[in-house]
Design goal:
Layout (H helix, E strand, L loop, with lengths): L4 H11 L4 E7 L2 E6 H17 L7 E5 L4 H12 L3 E5 L5 H11 L3 E4 L2 H10 L8 E4 L11 E3 H5 L5 H13 L5 E6 L9 E5 H15 L6 E4 L6 H14 L2 E4 L6 H8 L3 E4 L1 H16 L3 H22 L6 H20 L7 E4 L6 H10 L3 E6 L6 E4 L12 E2 L3 E5 L4 E6 L5 E2 L3 H7 E2 L2 E10 L5 E6 L4 E2 L5 E2 L1 H9 L4 E7 L6 E7 L1 H10 L7 H4 L3 H15 L8 E6 L19 H7 L1 H8 L1
Parallel strand pairs: 1-11, 3-4, 3-5, 5-6, 6-7, 10-11, 10-12, 12-13, 13-14, 26-27
Antiparallel strand pairs: 1-2, 8-9, 9-19, 14-15, 15-16, 17-18, 18-21, 20-21, 21-22, 23-24, 25-26
């Protein structure tokens, strides 16, 4: 048997018998699920899927929020030598229909009523879809071919089915396609990225050289497992190390869940860290002067130490003593907000501001921020605990090679490179040449080999005057304002740069309350002269850092956020610029009229 995710999984289930593999939140408390129970459920479910007609190579979709059933279905489908197709849990029916139709999915698991309703609404247009499996028993039955995952796990498979399952598990190769992950489609139609067992294992093992996780570690699963970051860094890493995954109860209960679980690691996105950072500073700055002064002195000492270590400068005893005092009096208390055991955060998907990177390293919970993409399985470069440079995306992981093409495009090579795009040989040939993946991202390697990404190749905006604008860079600067939640830069074939800005309404309303500014709703709020003046000051602060041709000359405030459900963002929160250009065409044209 070649080493693959399935063989590793069943070894862990046997070795860690009785130890906790998964934690489910139920009625405000976490319930433990053992490794042997995990393994038994996955194997029984795999046999039931084979009995229901699942063939080797068939596609099995998982359209659900993060939960133990997600893990059971994933490992069961892999055990049956099928290909897993994850679907973002908030996808709308048209998005689901495209993925299931393009992949010719034969079975799908859904997690709640909304997901089941979405599948039922499109099922008649999906001739390959034979079985809908529900993560909860109360969803099963009714119209259509639906069955609960619990009933499948409880079935008696029979000797013939058990023998067939054993044969399939033994036949799994590291080169088998394990999963088909659809890209988020920022620049066109989503494409199915084929990743093998070898790709996934290679990336997990590379990550482990940087993060030093083991059996005693607990990861809190918060980001969608349909995205490669949580799936590789939490789900499959747990399979490889034999640790524990706790599933967050909901997006709104994260801080409560952290206190209940005391995780040692967790994935997040830069915007989450920006909000945590702002929240901590708001709390401190509204407190007693002595507490405020002590906190800022501690951060100064911590930041100085981080920058010394980043640049490999000698750290003198005076700074070490200052940091030890800061750690005892301030940082140890901040860490308790995150359960007291958090060793690291894993971050991806967008640019992380340097000051936030330095702050979290100073308090003792470094953000392992790097560069990655679905076509390279997950992580390509990483700032680790000891090898880091704030403002960059870190250095290539072991076994990964990175080089910069003549036009500035980032190229990647190694065992983590995808097998190709499903049923798209021309797109595959365009993306992979001589073993090098053309990422579509622009950047450079600094003098010490740290990667700096400047923008998406297809996102570079060119003004009517021929100036190249990097929208992600300007958007990051704008989002650094406590009052700005989202920003999208407009500049393509335009005379000057403008922006669509979504306020952070919580911060903005607190400002209005402090200034005794009256309003009725968000639509009225964003039109008030005092509010427009506030945002003009924030934009002016950003413009002071920019060359003249980059300056944001005009902006419009919007009353609601950009969302994946609304079509403006991908499920990994990347901006769909074409959609926004079309959806807000009249507003944009008004800026340049």
């Amino acid at each position: 048997m070649t080493d693959n995710l399935v063989s590793i999984f069943y070894r862990q289930a046997a070795i860690n018998k009785g130890k906790t593999a998964l934690k489910r939140k139920q009625e405000g408390q976490y319930i433990d699920i053992s490794w042997d129970y995990y393994g038994k459920n996955a194997r029984n479910l795999a046999a039931a899927l084979i009995k229901a007609g699942l063939k080797e190579g068939d596609r099995v979709a998982i359209f659900s929020y993060n939960c133990p059933e997600w893990a059971y279905m994933d490992l069961a489908a892999l055990s049956a030598r099928a290909v897993v197709v994850p679907v973002y849990f908030k996808s709308n029916p048209l998005q689901v229909e495209f993925i299931l139709g393009d992949s010719k999915t034969s079975m799908i698991m859904v997690g709640d009523e909304a997901q089941l309703a979405a599948v039922r609404s499109i099922k008649d247009r999906l001739p390959d879809l034979r079985l809908v499996i529900c993560a909860s028993e109360h969803l099963a039955g009714g119209e259509g071919a639906t069955v609960s995952i619990q009933s499948l796990i409880g079935q008696s498979a029979g000797a013939d089915t058990e023998n067939e399952l054993a044969r399939r598990i033994a036949a799994i190769s590291a080169d088998d396609t394990a999963t088909l992950v659809y890209t988020s489609g920022t620049t066109g139609e989503p494409k199915g990225v084929m990743l093998s067992h070898k790709n996934l294992i290679a990336n997990v093992k590379s990550d482990l050289t940087a993060v030093s996780m083991g059996k005693g570690d607990v990861g809190l699963s918060f980001l969608p497992t349909s995205h490669v970051l949580d799936r590789v860094v939490v789900h499959y890493m747990n399979v490889v190390i034999g640790g524990t995954i706790a599933y967050a109860g909901s997006m709104d209960s994260i801080l409560e869940d952290i206190k209940l679980v005391s995780p040692t690691a967790m994935c997040g996105v830069p915007r989450m860290f920006e909000k945590i950072y702002t929240g901590i500073y708001d709390s401190v700055n509204s407190g007693p002067p002595q507490t405020k002064a002590l906190f800022h002195q501690a951060v100064a000492a911590g930041s100085e130490l981080v920058k010394h270590r980043s640049s490999r400068k000698f750290v003198g005893p005076g700074l070490l003593i200052r940091y030890a005092i800061a750690n005892t009096l301030v940082f140890s208390k901040v860490r308790k907000l995150f359960g007291g055991r958090m060793k690291l955060w894993a971050s991806g998907g967008a640019h992380l501001q340097e000051e936030i990177d330095v702050f979290f390293r100073a308090i003792g919970i470094p953000i392992m921020h790097g560069y990655g993409l679905t076509e390279a399985t997950c992580t390509v470069t990483l700032n680790t605990r000891d090898d880091f440079r704030p403002g960059t995306l870190g250095r290539p992981l072991p076994g990964v090679r990175v080089k910069i093409a003549d036009d500035g495009e980032i190229l990647v090579s190694g065992d983590l490179i995808m097998q190709g795009y499903y049923n798209r040989p021309d797109d595959t040939a365009a993306a992979i040449s001589d073993g090098w993946l053309h990422t579509g991202d622009m950047g450079y390697l600094d003098e010490q080999g740290y990667l700096v990404m400047t923008d998406r190749k297809k996102d570079i905006l060119v003004t009517s005057g021929g100036k190249n604008i990097s929208p992600q860079r300007l958007e990051t600067f704008l989002r650094a304002s406590r009052y700005i939640e989202q920003a999208v830069i407009i500049a393509e074939r335009r005379r000057f740069v403008s922006a669509l800005v979504v306020p952070d309404f919580l911060q903005l309303k607190q400002y209005c309350q402090a200034e005794d500014i009256k309003y009725t709703d968000n639509n009225a709020l964003i039109k008030l002269p005092e509010v427009l003046q506030l945002f003009q000051r924030e934009v002016d602060g950003v413009n002071a850092r920019l060359d003249d041709f980059e300056k944001v000359k005009s902006f419009i405030l919007l009353p609601q956020e950009f969302t994946a459900e609304g079509g403006e963002l991908t499920y990994t929160l990347k901006v769909k610029r074409r959609v926004i250009d079309e959806k807000y065409r009249d507003l944009i044209e008004g800026i340049y009229a």
